[in-house]
Design goal:
Length: 271
């Protein structure tokens, strides 16, 4: 069984070689996004924004927040905490705009994430997106670890406005819930061409509580989806998003209604 797993991992690594992207030295790098100040005032300005009614859930969260400068857990001393408290199938979305960078067509989003124990009971999906609004088009490189589909990655089709399930397991080793209270280091590579958005590759490194590497795998996704027209009134922009979705078990019986996610060292690279 171990030899078979080793073979599978080796094949995944070989298949990923073409899209294990190293950005050029001329790329624009937005580092430590989780530590950045600023607020999107609704006009697409640079900064953080959040909402529950816009997140697509059946209900709105009762309480939610974003707290920066958290020392525990943290890798560099200042992580950001996302918190939600709500009923079944409520969602919360957090985003950060870096401003318009219209010439960029290649993107790498690199971040660390840790989720809490409640996620194993009431987690529905954990979403990590990169977006660009440019040339009258909305390119939404949406990705989520989908618990309801069997712990696999979904990618977003903006043209169809729906999630497209893949067979890629969330931690790239096996189909299971993300392990709570440990760090995952995730890197997605995307690019756009014409009206299409391309999901090129994903790397997931899972650590244990002592920060030893448990697994480190890159998978060549090679998936394309359509973009869509930019809604009226939206301006050109580039940014990242994080969303937490509660499942139908939230608040049922003695089940919790809260879930917490920490992010750290969030970097968006564009060229």
């Amino acid at each position: 069984m171990k030899s078979r797993l080793a073979l599978v991992l080796a094949l995944l690594l070989l298949a990923s070689a073409a899209w294990a992207t190293t950005p050029p030295t001329t790329a624009t790098v937005f580092s430590n996004i989780d530590d950045q100040a600023g607020r999107d005032n609704g006009s697409g300005s640079v900064g953080w924004g959040w909402c529950t009614t816009c997140a697509g859930g059946a209900t709105s969260a009762t309480t939610f927040w974003m707290l920066q400068n958290q020392t525990t857990p943290s890798l560099d001393g200042t992580s950001t905490e996302f918190y939600t408290d709500g009923s079944a199938y409520s969602n919360v979305l957090f985003w950060y705009n870096v401003g318009a960078h219209d010439t960029a067509s290649n993107f790498q989003t690199d971040f660390w994430v840790q989720i809490d124990q409640n996620s194993t009971v009431v987690g529905q999906a954990f979403e990590f997106d990169t977006y660009q609004f440019v040339n009258g088009r909305q390119f939404m490189f949406g990705t989520q670890c989908d618990y309801s589909k069997g712990y696999v990655w979904d990618v977003w089709s903006q043209a169809k406005t729906q999630w497209i399930p893949t067979t890629i397991p969330c931690d790239l080793v096996k189909k299971q819930a993300l392990t709570p209270n440990v760090w995952y280091h995730i890197t997605w590579n995307f690019h756009r061409a014409g009206k299409l958005e391309y999901y090129d590759s994903i790397t997931v490194v899972r650590y244990d509580s002592a920060m030893n590497v448990v697994s480190n795998v890159t998978y060549s996704a090679s998936i394309s989806q359509g973009s869509a027209k930019l809604p009226a009134g939206w301006i050109n922009n580039l940014g990242v998003q994080f969303q937490m979705d509660l499942n139908g078990n939230a608040g049922v019986g003695s089940n919790p209604t809260t879930m917490t996610e920490h992010i750290d060292n969030v970097t968006l690279t564009a060229w």
